[in-house]
């Protein structure tokens, strides 16, 4: 219980409704959930083409709707939805415990501790990403697959746990399609040709598929058409590559950056967790290899593999402590070096490793940010006369209508027209009386700078002008992202 409370406390302490690691958090999930709940919002190209399953945005929509029902404060609804998502990512904790418990309660305790306090596990728990949720669901499903296939006395409990695992694996793939190879390798490696155990797992997977089909139908889509659209556009048409292309070793570099200075010891330890866990380690390895074949790479894509390595390495440290006790002629297990005092030392070592990794990699500020932009937008809207906000196109990922306390138009300043020393285009300038720019170099005629906030190595500044706002649909957020996606012509 103290470890679980520490896990929850750390996540609450680092929770922020504004700071993000990736644009998907706000645009693809929060904004789309809010659009389902309220009937208004932006439609990015991914939603326009139906690129993803809608299960995450539908789940968020439920809590956003409930938040609007309970309070007229938009941020209350946002906080409620993000808190609900964060609560789901806490499934990582029982997942770690169950995996460790396959060996013993001592292994389970250390695995739970690492999943609870490792700085990056805390970070990803607070990110509104499909990878965060899918990783928790898939790892929670892993333990029954890796356990012995013996039935319990009544012959039902084992089948029920396998059925639940199949359901969780299916939901994990619905949340993050690209984790399907991980799921396939894990299931094949753990179940092999045991058809009796395959049956409940497949039934659980079928139940998840039915839920996915119902989700698609509720959105007015052909069930699972998004799978083909995703593959066709991201791989066939190379759409994902426009967001960046990396070499085949990018994930190794990413792992070193995030897990420095102990990446190699962690991977070696994970391999020593025990033969029972080999299918899980094989799945983590294949996941990295498959993603390495794709030109566009982001570290979050392999978070499931990283989390797997951390949990397996945690389990391995208890095994290593037991072996150390045996070699010294002591007692392995609860009465020996890996007893309560030994386990406490192991946990402290993991805590120290987490601090070292966080310090070496740069920690939370290095991997998320941008909260300055919505905070400045909220400041702008504190003034009742603020009728529209113009936003630098370069920082659009940090602000969506779902974050605003009242609905006002958001206009985007194109990168080519970003006012470094001149003025805004006339239609755009008259369309908003609040303006947020990233690292502005000079004052703008007719605008006064009200406030600035640091944003990494940049700063975001809020400008105001006197007067009202004229309609400027050609500069609207929706039109400008349509232009960027090639769905509309530039003004």
UniProtKB/TrEMBL annotation:
<keyword id="KW-0812">Transmembrane</keyword>
<feature type="transmembrane region" description="Helical">
    <location>
        <begin position="162"/>
        <end position="191"/>
    </location>
</feature>
<keyword id="KW-0808">Transferase</keyword>
<feature type="transmembrane region" description="Helical">
    <location>
        <begin position="249"/>
        <end position="272"/>
    </location>
</feature>
<feature type="transmembrane region" description="Helical">
    <location>
        <begin position="76"/>
        <end position="97"/>
    </location>
</feature>
<feature type="transmembrane region" description="Helical">
    <location>
        <begin position="333"/>
        <end position="353"/>
    </location>
</feature>
<keyword id="KW-0472">Membrane</keyword>
<feature type="transmembrane region" description="Helical">
    <location>
        <begin position="301"/>
        <end position="321"/>
    </location>
</feature>
<keyword id="KW-0328">Glycosyltransferase</keyword>
<protein>
    <recommendedName>
        <fullName>Alg9-like mannosyltransferase family protein</fullName>
    </recommendedName>
</protein>
<keyword id="KW-1133">Transmembrane helix</keyword>
<dbReference type="Pfam" id="PF03901">
    <property type="entry name" value="Glyco_transf_22"/>
</dbReference>
<feature type="transmembrane region" description="Helical">
    <location>
        <begin position="277"/>
        <end position="295"/>
    </location>
</feature>
<feature type="transmembrane region" description="Helical">
    <location>
        <begin position="203"/>
        <end position="229"/>
    </location>
</feature>
<dbReference type="InterPro" id="IPR005599">
    <property type="entry name" value="GPI_mannosylTrfase"/>
</dbReference>
<feature type="transmembrane region" description="Helical">
    <location>
        <begin position="109"/>
        <end position="142"/>
    </location>
</feature>
<keyword id="KW-0256">Endoplasmic reticulum</keyword>
